[in-house]
Amino acid sequence: MDINQKQIDAWNSETLPIYEPGLPEVVKECRGKNLFFSTAVDDEIEKADIIFISVNTPTKTKGIGAGRAANIKNCELCARQIAKVATSNKIVVEKSTVPVRTAQAIARVLKSNDKGLSFQVLSNPEFLAEGTAIDDLFAPDRVLIGGQQTPEGLAAAEKLVSVYANWVPRERILTTNLWSSELSKLVANAFLAQRVSSINSISALCEATGADVSEISRAVGMDDRIGKRFLQSSVGFGGSCFQKDILNLVYLCETFGLEECAHYWNQVVVMNDYQKKRFSEKVVGSMFNTVTGKKIAMLGYAFKKDTGDVRETPSMFVLRDLLQEGSRMHIYDPQVTRDDMWIEMDYTCGVNHDNTPGLDESVITETDAYSACDGAHAICILTEWDEFKTLDYEKIFKSMAKPAFIFDGRNILDHAALRKIGYEVHCIGKPDPTKFTDL
Ligand code: UDX
Q1: Which one of 303, 382, 408 would you pick to mutate in the ligand 1 pocket, going by the greatest count of ligand atoms within 8 A of its CB?
Q2: I want to staple 95 with a disulfide (CB 3.0 to 4.6 A). Which of 52, 113, 151, 217 is the partner?
């Protein structure tokens, strides 16, 4: 259910509104059988036993807590609509990521119905990651369900458990109190982002000392207590969740007077901003401190591979910085649309066609990597799309201005082979062989 007719029409068409591997197959198999897309919100509320509130909760842009607090306006609107049109008891599930104790607000709004109906509110945060969403849904690490610790709350939680138990082993379905469930989602994302910022902070130290961040990730990750995953150094994390959820956590800590805790978590975001900035500065610094008038190819714009999502993508910040330096940007990403690029650039960086004349001339979106790189002074790899690993870099080298630079913001290329071709290669957290003679 959505109030946006355009979105629903797209879900009902052959071209789904988002790119997600495996999703078209699932929609094709189920649509019209046990999966329906519609804008008839009121009718469907009336018929439903369980309602998932899955609306967005973006970071507030103005007012109290602007820039950190999550705006739960849409959750409240859903609760008000349910209270208004429901004619029978319901279980209302918070699927959206929300600040802890949001369930209390939702329950109060629902309770204020004057029809004598009873509603149970559950928290069931979503842990899927983009690009692997279908696999994550079919085989989740865990399903978390929080409910009120009353006989009615426990019964409602059990009902939702029995839905998931159709395909998820029982031992992977956790039940907790409401507040633990709400907070766990923020904490999970904060921990994941913290790992990325931690390894990125080490990448800077590696570049200064001659150590190799990939070797460090491997050595550190082989300790079972630490684990291998999420130790891939990069140009920085992006996506719709990490920054938003950490800032939400920071705001929560501040609200409860926990300044040190707020400061601790905020540093994860500070480190990420530093990493993005460091990349732009490395590009400009390496290219003789000027990129004015130079063509730079950006390979990848999505915040990670296998998605067309550009929310908080690190590429956007690099693009903004390099545009300010006067470079001519040629961007290729297999899934990102030019419209989405500009919408996000305006929303997050405040850069748009009205306040920045000449944007369309300075930023060209290409339909393949080779034309993006043709005649370029430098290539920046910003998303780890598999297809970038197998490009014909000999052919690309011949077509580029010299010296030809590659800045691998994802450490996905064979750097030794590229150097053999003649490229000047810069990566993340890898020692520069021209700087260290003892490697
Ligand atoms: C994340 C959480 O993983 C998921 O559980 C939650 O439900 C939503 O938020 P998502 O934003 O889709 O999922 O992507 P994720 O795979 O977590 O990556 C986030 C960002 O971190 C990406 O920009 C990615 O490139 C970056 N990253 C990830 C690294 O730079 N290094 C890593 O080792 C891992």
Answers
A1: 303
A2: 52
In DSSP terms, 425 is beta-bridged to 406
* DSSP state for residue 336 in the 8-state scheme: -
Cα–Cα distance for residue pair 286/282, rounded to 1 Å: 6
What is the CA(129)–ligand 1 centre distance, in A? 7
Tokens of 232: 């891939």
Residue nearest to atom 22 of ligand 1 (CA): 237
Site to substitute for ligand 1 among 144, 182, 185, 237, most atoms within 8 A of C-beta: 237
Bond prior to 58 in cis (omega within 30° of 0): no
The rounded Å distance from CA 136 to ligand 1 centre is 13
Entry field: residues in the chain: 439
pLDDT at position 433 is: 84
C-alpha–C-alpha distance, residues 307 and 397, integer Å: 28
Active site residues: 241
Q: Which DSSP string do the residues of 118-133 spell out, in sequence order?
A: -EEEEE------TTSH
Which amino acid is residue 61, in one-letter code? T
> How far, in Å, are 216, 275, 278 from residue 205 at the CA level?
11, 12, 12
**Amino acid found at 328:** R
CA of 225 to the centre of ligand 1 (A): 20
- Residue 301 CA to ligand 1 center (angstroms) comes to 15
Low-confidence ranges of the chain (pLDDT < 70): 439
Residue 303 Cβ inside 6 Å of ligand 1? The answer reads yes
Whether 192 is in the pocket of ligand 1, judged by its Cβ within 6 Å, is yes
* Interatomic CA distance for residues 371 and 389, integer angstroms: 17
Structural contact between residues 129 and 136, judged by C-beta atoms closer than 8 angstroms = yes
Q: 10 Å Cβ neighbour count for 284?
A: 18
